[in-house]
Design goal:
Elements lengths: L3 E5 L6 H15 L2 E8 L2 H9 L5 H19 L4 E7 L2 H11 L4 E6 L5 H6 L2 H8 L4 E5 L9
Parallel strand pairs: 1-2, 1-4, 2-3, 4-5
Helix pairs in contact: 4-6
């Protein structure tokens, strides 16, 4: 049913929730998981236009997404990774189309009302831009265990 699943990662604890769900879904459907992280710092947003080198933040993001890709592969799931730069909503939507993905699966923070307006919602923007189904899983930050 789903041959290619695009999974936007934000390089935070919230990624764990969606990767857990997508891993099982991909295994059931023998899907390829395409991980994408959109670096949105100044250097990432202007790298191509100004022919800038990859920033330290972008190198860290690349290392992160490649490590998460290897984790999926170690579980027997075919995975690819993409590091993009720019505005996350449009970049994710463009990648879904360009990569031929038939599902976008992403973790959300669960903001409500004013918080959603103040912080914006990449998930909301993506669901309005893509032409394929969007699976949203509410993530949670890791809890530090008491000593």
């Amino acid at each position: 049913m789903y041959a290619r699943i695009l999974v936007p990662l934000e390089h935070s604890d919230y990624d764990d929730a969606i990767l857990m769900h997508v891993g099982e879904l991909a295994r059931m459907h023998k899907s390829t998981v395409v991980l994408i992280h959109v670096a949105d710092g100044w250097a990432a947003r202007n790298q191509q236009g100004l022919a800038l080198r990859e920033s330290a933040e972008m190198r860290d993001d690349r290392d992160y997404i490649e490590a998460r890709c290897k984790e999926l592969e170690a579980r027997g799931i075919q995975a690819e990774c993409i590091l993009a730069g720019g505005d996350p909503g449009p970049e994710i939507a463009a990648a879904a189309e360009r990569e031929g993905c038939d599902l976008v699966a992403m973790s959300t923070h669960g903001h409500k009302g004013v918080q959603d307006l103040l912080r914006g919602s990449v998930a909301n923007e993506v669901r309005h831009r893509v032409k394929v189904p969007v699976l949203m899983v509410r993530g949670a930050p890791r809890r530090i265990k008491p000593a």
